[in-house]
Amino acid sequence: MGRDLSALFDPVSVAVVGASDDPAKYGHAIAAQALRANGRRPVHLVNRRGGTVLGHTAAAGLSAIGEPVDLAVISVPAAGFEDAVEEALHCGARAIVAITAGFAETGDAGRARQRAVAERVRAAGAVMVGPNCLGIADNTTDLFLASDTFDPGGVALLSQSGNLALELQLRFRPHGLGFSRFVSLGNQADVTLVDLLADCARHEGTRAIAVYAEDFADGRAFAEAAADAGKPVVLLTGGRGDASARSAQSHTGALTTSADVVTAACRDAGVELVATPRELTVVLAASQGARRAAGRRVAVLTDGGGHGVVAADAVEAAGLTVPELRRPTQDHLRRALWEQSAVANPVDLAGMGEQNPGSYADTVSALLAAEEVDAVLMTGYFGGYAAADGGLGGGGTALADGEQEAARLIAARHQAGAKPLVVQSMYPGSPSCRTLAAAGIPVFGATEDAARALAATAPAASPAAVHTGVTPLPHPDAPLREAGYLPTRRALEAAGLAFPAAREIHGEAELLAVTEEFGGPYVLKALHLLHKSDAGGVALGLAGPGELRAAFREMHARLGASSYSVEAMADLSDGIELIVGVHQDPRFGPVAMVGLGGVLAEALRDVAFALAPVSAERALRLLRGLRTAALLDGVRGRPAVDVSAAAAAVETITAFAAAHPEIAEIEVNPLLVRPDGVLALDSRAVLA
Question: Distance between CA atoms of 355 and 210, rounded to whole angstroms?
């Protein structure tokens, strides 16, 4: 069920501690907002001087109120914060909104104070948002405890930025979007983003959840909560650069950036990841109608060739397709439109809209009905005939009236179907476009926004991009004590991964004894080197004992390793080399990487990521999503390889890594996939 946050969002009573008449103080803004809902529940203002605040009697302390307080907003100097919390708990507070700053964000001493306060709150059975937050609001319960007013609607915003909330408010309005809830996350000393996400998922007044987060803390728990939300979750986050890969000691670590991890977590959890407040707004506008396209095929409708070409390019840039319409659809459109209209896709009315605005409605209806179309983008001038600010109709002509009627017909036909329809207009605020928007049809002024909105309604572009959920972590196994090549290899073999025969040797006598156990060709590896190939510590294709001995003498003279591994040389002729690795991310836990491997792993960077452990079914999707996936099925006379065996090996490796949190990085490279199975040819691990 998650934590009970009912006292936070629908308290019996509220007290604002630090309420003030001074407009420069945050307690002034909070108090003014809180009083807006004074009829819903008692609102008490507390100022240590007593008197009046904003024309209302102020108590000198919470205890002076004379009745229990369910939720206390604390906006006092940091020096008095602990005392204010203690008094609030003494007065029965079940929830605290801590505006006061000066804690974990200031260093170790502040972090220790913050931890102690959070422990005290939890011990009392209460909950606390903050400290260092900007307040909360819930339009569904008339709870206004932030400095600004938020338009009501169905979006819950959980944000580490207050100014971002103000920008989103402005961007939401043209699309009829508003807020069910707003929570400024602050330092998350007690109530976390995950707690709030889970509560908003249960909240009937919330239809979609928007998140702005710079630090996830427990990113894996966030992904799990988002996957279980049952509502659209849209994430805007920063800091997705590649700094985390700089100190990596394996190919896996070097190839895994923070952006890769966040993207993989969002994909697995079904979260829409966006880069800007504008894109966040576009995706939320697209989710309003809860329509999902069955495929990625888009029909573009315009009344001007230029808009159609630009829109088609934008649609394809968003990862969608603009296929040529089938003959029956084209024939139907030719009968409905005039001779100069283009009907292949994009469909261009070629000026017919000015003669008969109803042609827009007729064409939209035909395109929504076409089997080869999954969604429709109408772009260009529609809206201009009825616009009062420069459109042809001037807001009052027969042409304007015709466009308005066309808008009503489009809205009706859209509502009768199930396919998404998105509109881009030069006049998005016109009466006709407002009619469309009121019917749940997203309307945008920018073509790229309309294309992005359609992409948000479409299914995954590739098997690797399919939302699969987050697999729970297994119980930890007994930790590895050594991370050398042979201990790691033995542990993986015990987990079920196949390797060629191998023996550890320390000198020539042992070397020759190995040749009596199994025949050549051989591989010789110098042990205790992380990147053996880079150091010249691997010799391949040694035909017999003589070549093996010569390679050993040369390598030992050059490297002087304490021991070596002699291994049976695998047949590489019909195989594909993959890389499979797991990197322990501090926020999201184990993250798996699969891709084309061997010595070119970093150069080609044809890799895919997922939260580990990865099931064989999921691994198969990741492998099929690689750019070079065609190699797996055989090209230029080469046979297809056993992709199912490769997927099973990925499951084995990632399950092993997930059960060993002490491993910071582990990889098998190359994992040789042949027509008849797989062999792990090399492995490495780095302990945390």
Answer: 43
465 falls within a domain: no
Do both 524 and 623 map to the same domain? no
219-268: pLDDT as tens digits = 999 999 999 999 999 999 875 544 444 444 445 545 567 888 999 999 99
Q: Would you call 52 helix, strand, or coil by DSSP? A: strand
How far apart CA 376 and CA 436 sit, in angstroms, is 14
Tell me the helix, strand and coil percentages in the chain, rounded to 5: 40, 20, 40
Q: What is the reported pLDDT for 243?
A: 45
What CATH number should be reported for the domain holding residue 320?
Answer: 3.40.50.261
Give yes or no: residues 269 and 310 share one domain: no
Give percent of the chain above pLDDT 70. 94
Q: What are the pLDDT digits (tens) for 441-473? A: 999 999 999 999 999 999 987 777 777 889 999
Pairing of strands 576-585, 663-674: antiparallel
Q: How far apart are CA 496 and CA 512, in angstroms?
A: 29
Which helix (H) or strand (E) segment is 114 a member of?
Answer: helix 108-123
Q: What's the structural domain count of the chain?
A: 5
Same domain, 182 and 110: no
Q: Are residues 334 and 322 in the same domain?
A: yes
| pLDDT tens-digit series, residues 20-76 | 999 999 999 999 999 998 789 999 999 999 999 999 999 999 999 999 999 999 999
Closest residue by Cα to residue 145 from 104, 186, 194: 186
CATH code for the domain in which residue 665 is found: 3.30.470.20
| CA distances in angstroms from 304 to 315, 378, 645, listed in the order given | 17, 11, 53
- Cβ atoms 607, 591 nearer than 8 A: no
Q: Decide if 20 contacts 83 (C-beta within 8 A).
A: no
Is there a domain that residue 16 lies in? Answer: yes
Which residues contact residue 413 at a Cβ distance below 8 angstroms, ignoring those fewer than 6 apart?
361, 364, 365, 368
Same domain, 104 and 249: no
Strand pairing category for 564-568 and 538-542: unpaired
Q: Which of 627, 655, 611, 646 has its CA nearest to residue 260?
A: 611
CA distance 58 to 46: 5
User: Residue 177 forms beta bridges with which residues?
Assistant: none
Give the domain range for residue 440: 293-458
In a domain, residue 495? The reply is no
CATH number (domain holding residue 101): 3.40.50.720
541: left (phi over 0), alpha (psi -120 to 50) or beta: left
Residues 441 and 306 grouped into a single domain? yes
Residue 268 lies inside a defined structural domain of this protein: yes
Amino acid letter for position 327: R
pLDDT tens digit sequence for 601-611: 777 788 999 99
Q: What is the CATH number of the domain that holds 515?
A: 3.30.1490.20
* Residue where a domain stops, chosen among 241, 257, 291: 291
- Picking from 272, 291, 310, the residue at the C-terminal end of a domain is 291
- Cα 285 to Cα 220: distance, rounded to the nearest angstrom: 27
Q: Are residues 551 and 586 in the same domain?
A: no
Query: What is the rounded distance in angstroms from the CA atom of residue 440 to the CA atom of residue 207?
Result: 14
What are the distances in angstroms from CA 642 to CA 223, 536, 647, 649?
A: 32, 31, 9, 11
Strand partners, 73: 16, 97
DSSP calls for 263-276: HHHHHHHTPEEESS
Distance (Å, whole) CA 175 – CA 447: 15
- Which letter, b or e, does each residue of 319-352 get, where b requires 16 or more Cβ atoms within 10 Å of its Cβ? bbebbebeeebbebbeeebeeebbbebbbbbbeb
Tell me, yes or no, whether 250 and 307 share the same domain. Answer: no
Residue 178 zone, left/alpha/beta (φ > 0; ψ -120 to 50; rest) = beta
What are the residues whose beta carbons fall under 8 Å from the beta carbon of 211, sequence distance 6 or more?
157, 158, 159, 193, 197, 233, 234, 235, 236, 237
